[in-house]
Amino acid sequence: AASPATHYIKPLQCGGSDEGWVRRHAEIPSNATGVSPTSTHSAQTLFRWEMAASPHLASRVEKSPVSDEKVVKSLADALTTMEDKCVENFGMAMQPSILVETAGGVLSPSSASPDNSLTTHARGVPSSDEGGSDPLSWGWSTQADLYQPLGLPAVLVGDGRLGGISCTLSALESLAVRGYDVHGIVVVDDGGGYGNVAALREYAASQSSSHVRGQEFPFARQSYQVDPMDSILSLPPLPPEPEPLTSWYQSAEVEKGLDAFEDRLEYLWNKERGREDQLLSEGYFTLPPV
Predict the structure, then answer these.
(1) Which of 83, 238, 246, 252 is the most exposed, fewest CB within 10 Å of its CB?
(2) Residue 289, CA distances (Å) to 183, 230, 283 in order
(3) Can you give the chain as a three-state secondary structure string?
(4) pTM: predicted TM-score of the whole model, two decimal places
């Protein structure tokens, strides 16, 4: 059975509100920020900047730094809180489906901070002698590096446009070398007829026993029994703006595709939870302390 609770988290938001978009289309009340007996769906944003730009730039321009450690700890706390509340309201048999949306792509920058001071953090050259007080010197990580400590499985949003095959596979391999379990790929077709989804399925099938840079390709992981047809979802082109998406979501093609994809994700998530329960019973932490 599907989870009784679905929670959306956007850790980093720059300009606009993806949370608002989710609330509008999922019909989530504006005051629903957690699971309760009367409200099983909710959405929240952890950190927000007004500037519509990359988080590393927005945090520097607005002089509002947020470190990697703070983002990871806040997200880990939010995940734990949501699971605890759902268990409290629905019991151990029903755990929530929690969706975390990154800010941009796999290698898009995270927020910058003077506390991001490792040699692996990217940073600019200060324009003055101010040193750490100059926002240009604040370090940042990629999205994939930022969330890596949490060990969360991933769903990759691919590119259906011309050139999108290379972009999608590059993102997939970037996740693979960082140890992510990729549970699926979603591609919204732009109507150009470029055959991106077919190419991704062919590539996924061909990689079932291959390795990338010494690590297993995500589709070769034992926790991911690949079925390119079920694991790579093709959705029809979106209607032109500002046409609402209601009819698109309610179309038979979208509903059928999403239902099958959700069933696949639920199966994989349940396997992931079973593995976590086993690790906990053996005395391991599934979410590293931060």
Answers:
(1) 252
(2) 24, 34, 14
(3) CCCCCEEEEEEEEECCCHHHHHHHHHCCCCCCCCCCCCCCEEEEEEEEECCCCCHHHHHHHCCCCCCHHHHHHHHHHHHHHHHHHHHHHHCCCCCCEEEECCCCCCCCECCCECCCCCCCCECCCCCCCCHHHCHHHCEECEHHHHHHHHCCCEEEEEEECCCHHHHHHHHHHHHHHCCCCEEEEEEEECCCCCCHHHHHHHHHHHCCCCEECCEECHHHCCCCCCCHHHHEEEECCCCCCCCCCHHHHHCHHHHHHHHHHHHHHHHHHHHHHHHHHHHHHCCCCCCCCC
(4) 0.85
Residue 8 CA to residue 17 CA, distance in Å, equals 13
What are the CA-CA distances from residue 181 to residues 40, 163, 217, 224, 281 (Å)?
Answer: 27, 24, 9, 8, 22
Predicted pLDDT of residue 14: 98
Residue with tokens 């929240």: 44
Q: Which amino acid is at 63?
A: K
In the block, residue with structure tokens 């978009």: 21
Block residue for tokens 């007004």: 50
Distance, in Å, from the CA atom of 169 to the CA atom of 13, rounded to the nearest integer, reads: 25
Q: What is the pLDDT of residues 261-275, one digit of tens each?
A: 888 888 888 777 777
CA distances to 16, 29, 155, 170 from 41, in Å: 21, 9, 20, 33
Can you give the pLDDT at residue 65? 98
